[in-house]
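just leaving the lab so this will be short. below you get a single protein, a line of residues and a line of whole numbers that encode the local backbone shape. id like you to explain what the token line says about the fold, in plain words if possible. thanks a lot i owe you, the record is right below:

…
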Amino acid sequence: MSDLTIRPERPADADAVRRVNKVAFGQPDEADLVDRLRQSGARYLGLVAEAEGGVVGHVLFTPVSLDAGTADVRGLAPMAVLPEHQRSGVGSALVRAGLAACAEDGAEAVVVLGHPDYYPRFGFRPASAFGLACAYDVPDEAFMALELVEGALADAGGVAHYHPAFGG
């Protein structure tokens, strides 16, 4: 997509971000999650993809705590692209830009609960390889981790805990 711009989310994007998440997922749960995170004052890193004069995609990264280890870990969730812009590179551009922004912000690793056929292209692999488990009951192959700093998860272990807003 040639006219794609990835930029930091701004407060004025709230309605467009809500729409992207609601339409992309076909229900409001992820949009509600983003709203709860904003309302809670949680620290997060959000990026939007703009094309054709509007917001067509969104990705969010929030701090994740681990039972063991001292790494600065972020959770990628949610990532949404309007259906008419899916499979055109928007999601990949958002993930790549988000990982770079996390690294620039001091993050050492990122975890994601997502499609095991999608996220490995960015270097994610099963989090269990690092001794990590998800706080939610999910298949092992769907919970993945990526070290942004080599060896960052060497002393990590146990359960990865997302912000309480993820609980509903």
User: Anything to note?
Assistant: The first strand starts at residue 5 and ends at 8. The helical segments are 14-25, 29-40, 90-104. The chain has three helices and nine strands. The chain has a mean pLDDT of 95.
